[in-house]
Design brief:
Length: 113
Amino acid sequence: MRASRTADEPELRPTRYALNLYGAEARSDLLKIKNVRNQFAHSDEQMDFSHPKITKLCSKLKAPKYLAEASMKPDASSAKDRFLDAIHHLAAGLNMYALLAVDRPAANRFLQY
C-alpha cells in the first residue's frame, strides 16, 4: 500500500482522470490552471498575468494551440488569453459530456487534444 502523499507531492491519479473523464493533456492543462490559481491566491508578491511565473505557466497550456489550429487562427499570445481559452475549452468539453448523459461515450473523446 502506498504511503500517504506529502503536501507538495501532486496527485498522480485523481479520480476524474482515473475514470477516464478527460485525457492526459486535458489533465495537464487542469493542473496548470490550478497552479496559476494558487500563484494568485498564495503568493507574497503582487501577481497579474504579466508576472513571469504566470506567463510561464500559461505558455505551457496546450488547449490554446489546439483551438488555434481548429479555427485556423494564430495562437493566443497573451497569458490571460491563453488561460481563458484553456478554461473555456475544458468547460465546453465537460459540458458536452454532461449533455450526453444517456449515451456516456468515453469522455476523453471530448477532452482529448
